[in-house]
Amino acid sequence: MPTPTPRTTGVRPPVLDLVEPIPEHLDTPLRQELHLGELPLVLLIADIATDGNFAESVLTVTDERLLILHANGSDAPVVESISIDRVLRVQTRNHVGSGSLVADLDEGTRELVRFSQGAYFKFSSVPQAVDALLTRPSEEIAEEPDAERAIPTRRIEHCETCGRALKQGTKVCPNCIKKRETFWRLFSYVRPYKKIALFGFGLTLTMTFVGLLPPQLNLILIDDVITPVIVEYMETGADGIPKQKLTPDDPKTPPAEQAKLLIWVVAGLFSIHFGRMLINATRSYTLGWLGQRITYDLQTEIFNYLQFLSLSFYSQHSTGRIMTRVTSDTERMRGFITTGFQDMVIAILTLIGIGAMLFWMNWELALLALIPTPIMLIVTQIYRKRIHWTFHTIWRRIASLNSQLADTIPGVKVVKAFAQEDREMKRFDRRNTELRDSRMESVKMKAYFLPGIAFITAMGSVILWWFGGNRVLENTLSLGQLQAFIAYMVMFYGPVRELSVLSDQLESAATTAERVFEILDTEPDVTDPVDATDPGVLQGHVKFRNVSFTYDGFARILDRVTFDVEPGEMIGLVGPSGAGKSTLVNLISRFFDASDGDVYIDGEPITSLQQGKLRSQIGVVLQEPLLFQGSIAQNIAYGRPDAPHARIIAAARAANAHDFIMRFPDGYDTEVGERGGRLSGGERQRISIARALIGEPRILILDEATSSVDTETEYEIQEALERLTENRTTFAIAHRLSTLKNADRLFVMDKGRIAEVGTHAELLEKEDGVYRRLVDMQTELAKVRAV
In what side-by-side order are the strands of the sheet with 604-605? Predict the structure, then answer.
């Protein structure tokens, strides 16, 4: 539907946050119910009536009330209106096959709407929106200009095909992914190696063709070599008594010729098996080579793409899940593209070749022998559908297990310090049990499926023995022909069984590919425009104009922040936790883009500058510095890998790190260990400062750089920071307010806004100010510690 607007012209249209198109039969009634100037903040469609039947309802949340319109057949919709003043909170509830949105009111709990599981995601965001509305002071809303309302705009992205709400951070709808397109995309990774792939495919065709020859040689062996002798023996008998013929009356080959033919047949069989071995060995090596190249390409593409994704992606996906996609998932994809797909091709070609051979030999027996095939195909199709979702569950739980490992192993010191080994073991056991149960579900399906398939194929052989045996007894089919026919049937059902087993691998590959392509299809939140410019050498002028930011689309972390910082100026950012200090400096580094307002660097919109060129001139020193596996020198030169050794030493001296580095036996070649674990906290911090210094940044960000070190180390770090901040625009976050006394200005942040601005001395003069209160609190705390 068109965006609902008030009924009076000239009134500003409402700002829609959680919004989706409204059905025509509910569009007009909704417009009529909205009051003049009433602002819808949420506008969503529910698809189940409160009585459990399928029916549409419209949930509208405005700054005045909760408004629900329930479709009532051809009659006018049933309207419910609940004043926002009566609402204590709103929450979602999960039921079997559906969910509901309920409101806690003064008089009790009331169900608002009910919806199917497919709509659960979009309604799960409503409680946050309502909570943000309820906790915002009414006078603050009233004084905001029309262009800026209490809750930032957020739109739900919907799938263009099925209309389902998409998960935040992705534009990929898992319900609409077509397996055929997924597999075509998967095989696009073979294209650079198509000559090798075609060579391997040719070997596969040759091996399949050669594999069809032995039954024909066996037929010659039985009918033209062995059977004539037996027939002659049975005709005369050992005692001279005539015997009944065992085979049709064909011309007999003399024993000498039979012996010669035997040699040729055996030699032919040996040549076929030896040649097939050579072909198979060459094919295996070719496919192995191809598989390793594809794995390399896949892992490289995913890892490289991960480097360009925004930080919001990493906040929504655990480390373990990402690692699983880069390693295990790509390995499964490689296995299918090379071995699995080729095995499938061999099976299909074998089926075609054997089927043609069977009908050429005896079409009646061929039809009888193929009776079990449709049954096998139907059973396999049912099995594939059921196993698909089981594999989805297994992969999710593997990723969940990897996530815990990624947390627990690096954090083992914390686990031991708090004696939480039992807790972590129980947590691991719970997740491992869930994974085991999912795998057992898969095992149970296979346990019934595979023996069932084996029984069905066995019935084909039984049918063939019955009808074929009767033909031999009736002297209308030779023994060799029956033996060849049965051999081909065994070869025929083998690929059918393989295809049944390969259906697991097919579903596994499809599920895995979907997970990998989900990453590759995720669009970064922060991107460079086509005409992005090189900022050149930065002066360090930073300006915010009415900047607001929200992570979840509802609660503002920054709320209309405005300031102007001159080049070379040092700004101290202070305030309670959650005030928005770290978010502010993240916007300067353009780790995120502002939800509203503009950020300027040297007078240019930050969104118009190339990210890489911008960040190369911004130095960051974090509270918990992360060092990479490698030497001290490699970590200092991380931002400038080509820096000469003399420059590395100069940066270390400036950071007061040179002396302790030289106390190590290997000096600058000392390995720091995983995440710098072989160094103390103060040593890691000084290495981090040296790493920032070597890049000669024009803008410097210090995020609690001295909060986790002792007093002596803090003095050395502070001394290094004074050198680091000289002639550089600096934003320093600190909870120890004494470390910011020398700042040119202090920005005191509170609830996402800059509450106060001034020097340390100026802000202390404000007795009722936020900064004065923070200083007094720290002073009292210091006195308590001294006692």
Answer: 556-565, 542-550, 596-601, 604-605
Cα 310 from Cα 341, distance rounded (Å): 35
What is the pLDDT confidence band of residue 177, given thresholds at 50, 70 and 90? low
* All domains of the chain in start order, with CATH: 18-143 (2.30.29.30), 180-520 (1.20.1560.10), 532-615+739-787 (3.40.50.300)
pLDDT of 143 reads 41
Q: How far apart are CA 529 and CA 367, in angstroms?
A: 64
Helices and strands (H, E) in the chain, number of each type: 27, 18
Which residues are CB-neighbours of 434 under 8 A, at least 6 positions away?
397, 400
Structure confidence by residue, pLDDT tens digits, 108-150: 888 888 887 667 767 877 887 787 777 654 444 444 443 333 3
- Phi and psi at 3, nearest 5°, equal -60, 125
Radius of gyration of the chain measured on its C-alpha atoms? 37
pLDDT number for residue 563? 92
Q: Are 690 and 654 in contact (CB under 8 A)?
A: yes
Mean pLDDT over 703-713 rounds to 63
Cα–Cα distance, 111 to 90 (Å, whole number): 10
Q: Are the C-beta atoms of 590 and 576 separated by less than 8 Å?
A: no
42: which strand partners? 18, 61
Asked if residue 439 has pLDDT above 70, the reply is yes
Cα–Cα distance measured from residue 520 to residue 749, given in angstroms and rounded to the nearest whole number:
38
CA proximity to 654, closest of 572, 717, 595, 714: 717
Size of the chain in residues? 787
For residue 113, the 8-state DSSP code is: E
pLDDT, mean of residues 64-90: 81
By DSSP bridging, strand 108-116 and strand 542-550 are unpaired
Q: Return left, alpha or beta for 560; rule: phi > 0 is left, psi -120 to 50 is alpha, else beta.
A: left
3-state secondary structure of 154: coil
Tokens 């296979």: give the residue.
446
pLDDT > 60? residue 15: no
Distances (CA, A) of 351 to 286, 356, 758: 24, 8, 83
Which ranges constitute the DSSP H helices of 115-254? Answer: 120-123, 126-134, 138-143, 179-187, 194-211, 214-220, 227-236
Beta strands in 73-143 (DSSP E): 75-83, 87-95, 98-105, 108-116
Q: What is the pLDDT of residues 304-344, one digit of tens each?
A: 888 888 777 777 777 777 887 888 788 778 777 777 777 77
User: What pLDDT digit, counting tens, does each position of 611-638 carry?
Assistant: 888 888 888 887 777 888 888 898 888 8
Contact 123, 101 (CB under 8 A): yes
Closest CA to 168 of 525, 516, 511: 525
Q: What local confidence, expressed as pLDDT, does residue 541 receive? A: 92
